[in-house]
Amino acid sequence: MAAFGLISLTFFSWRLTTSVITFKSPFRLPSSRIRMMSTPSPNGISPPLSVGSSEWIDLRSDKTKAELVVTSDIEWKATSQAGGVYRKMIERQGTEKVARATTIVRFEPDQSFPRHEHDGGEEFFVLDGVWRDDYGAFPKYSYVRNYIGSGHTPTIGEEGCVILVKLRQMSYLSKGEPDHKSWDDLSPDRVLLKGIAQENGVKRLDLFSSDLESTSVQVWPKNTIVSLSIPKHGAEIFVVDGSLNSELGIHNSWSWCRIPNDGDEVKIVDFKTLGDDVYVWAKEGHLASDEIGV
């Protein structure tokens, strides 16, 4: 979605937010690098940055640092040029126009957007509603990769749509990757049925894999300690449904964490699931990989 504000952000303008992050060594944003915005409005949606802002944003961009972002603590930020589009920033390096970013974006129903290309690639996971474009319709629990140079014309139907999207995090070294690839019907029930059994009752369904990264969806059983193997070059874990606890803090639904691993050996990190089964999207072995970036 490169020319489409949520990818290269030339079409939309966004506004920075901060969240409560709980872990052993809190990361503090340098105030000289980020302009803090006005007091949020009572409806929980704050006004956007000015159109075409070129101010540099450096938000949780150090991939060697562990982070936990509880997105329920972040307000939705309205875009300036496209009514009915809101976001919660998780990590970002760049400007409002072009940035390496991980973001949750919410689209209100019945919208259409101009065709655009992805000059840094994009991948996204549908968290709610249905995403529609030239390639088809992708309901909740779909995972989509649009490679560098691909393009599409998004439309949002009556269901609306919420996605977790990662921008400019692909590489030309990912040889043979098609312009578009998607996985749908990744519901927890299907993962339990088709996934490969791991330790402690975890079921894992592998998605994309290359020398640079691998992605999967997993179901972790309730009230269980899951000892997760973090490979060389680390991992990101996004909780789609459910909640869990780790040394970083409480991860509720739509929380994201980064766990680096600079060593050559696998690192074990313990998570404790709470109450219900937990459904996660995971990306592994990629934090030191080549990527377009900014």
Describe the protein:
The two termini are 15 Å apart. The protein has 294 residues and is mainly beta. It has one helix at 188-194; strands at residues 45-46, 57-59, 67-70, 76-78, 85-94, 99-107, 111-112, 116-117, 122-133, 136-139, 143-146, 151-152, 155-156, 161-167, 180-183, 196-197, 203-209, 214-220, 225-230, 235-246, 249-251, 255-259, 267-284. The chain has a domain at 188-284: Jelly Rolls, CATH 2.60.120.
Gyration radius, in Å: 18 Å
CATH superfamily membership of the domain at 188-284: Jelly Rolls
Principal-axes shape call: globular
CATH topology of the domain at 188-284: Jelly Rolls
pLDDT < 50 stretches: 1-43
- Structure annotation, total helices: 1
CATH domain class name of the domain at 188-284 = Mainly Beta
Helix content: under 10%
Head-to-tail CA distance between termini: 15 Å
Number of strand segments: 23
CATH architecture of the domain at 188-284: Sandwich
Q: Note the beta-strand portion.
A: 35-45%
Average pLDDT value? 84
Query: What structural class should be given to the helix and strand makeup?
Result: mainly beta
Order of helices and strands: EEEEEEEEEEEEEEEHEEEEEEEE
Outline the biggest β-sheet: 10 strands, mixed
Question: Which tags fit this structure?
Answer:
single chain; 294 residues; mainly beta; Jelly Rolls; ten-stranded mixed β-sheet; 1 helix; 23 strands; 2% helix; globular
